[in-house]
């Protein structure tokens, strides 16, 4: 944030706090409220020059939302009516228009993050929203619908606020989760601003419930209005860090719940039993059906989340198992996988009375290659050799990395002469003009896998001792 923006934010913060000391609804207070609102909307529009052209749409909708709230505060002070009688006034229309403007801006910002849909994040958002929706129903929506002292239009306006709050909350949670681990500052500040605004709305619901007399205390309303305006200021600040567009990578894994996320989800799930206890202690349960429905919805959401966690754990288990049996450099089976597979192949060969050959391969002068060209080049040689050799093997043959520059090949259904022909094909495609030595051994249908590998290894060392760049077979055994 540049010096100009810091100065502007500081001046606006002081102005908002000073305005909170003025008499609520007075001309001076209305002037300050209107002036700050219009100023912050204008600041976002001016700040658009910092934003790439393809990323300006969310900010335009945010500026529209701020303009609407500023005009709503003016209309609220003037008492302009949209409908006669006790129907909604112009301020209500402007305040309610704020929600779709901000909601569209949030959705566009989520799209700019370019992240894939994260279903676990959606379940988390739905769980928190469902818990707060139950609170809103019991303390705001339900009582408003049952209030026969006012007309239908006024009741619809009353319930429109908490419903809009809930929808905006769900979208905001989605934005936070779409922000990923990069934690770009603009989406974080935008989300914080919206959550602060929604906290002010929630305060208007909670305060009368706790103590109805507090709602008429001027200081309470001024504090809540200050929260609104400071939240709007945070939204204005966000454009100082306009970077929003993501890299298109997958969303951060939300299966690993942080302590804060777990605490929020736990609090949301505990709303139903807390309401049940509160009503039972204060004169009996009067919203049993609503609480039961809310509990069922949250139970289903928790089960959906639990299922996601189990699936994620299963995927991770399979991944870990695969990694533990795969060589990281060459993507070939590693020594552990080989030691598991060879006894099974030998047992099948015993039953079918089929020949099996095992060959050990060692790249010649690999240490000198590493010393000359460096270890990264040596790693590239191993990887390239594994890929080239794999392409020459038949279906059913198994190539594994045994360790260092040593590889081992399993050639089922093959005798020594055919195995030698296969290995000669591998020698011909060895990359970087390198050679290898190899030893092979045919299984005698009785020896252990360890003994078979030891004979192939002895043949390998005999090939290296004979001058390298050759293939030698261990002594042959007749198949019984």
From TrEMBL:
CDD domains: GGDEF. Keywords: Membrane, Transmembrane, Transmembrane helix. Residues 354-476 form the GGDEF domain. SMART domains: GGDEF. SUPFAM superfamilies: Nucleotide cyclase. It comes from the Bacteria. InterPro entries: Diguanylate_Cyclase, GGDEF_dom, Nucleotide_cyclase, Rev_trsase/Diguanyl_cyclase. The chain crosses the membrane at residues 7-24, 30-48, 57-74, 94-112, 119-140, 152-176, 188-207, 219-240, 260-277, 289-307. This is GGDEF domain-containing protein. It comes from Paractinoplanes aksuensis.
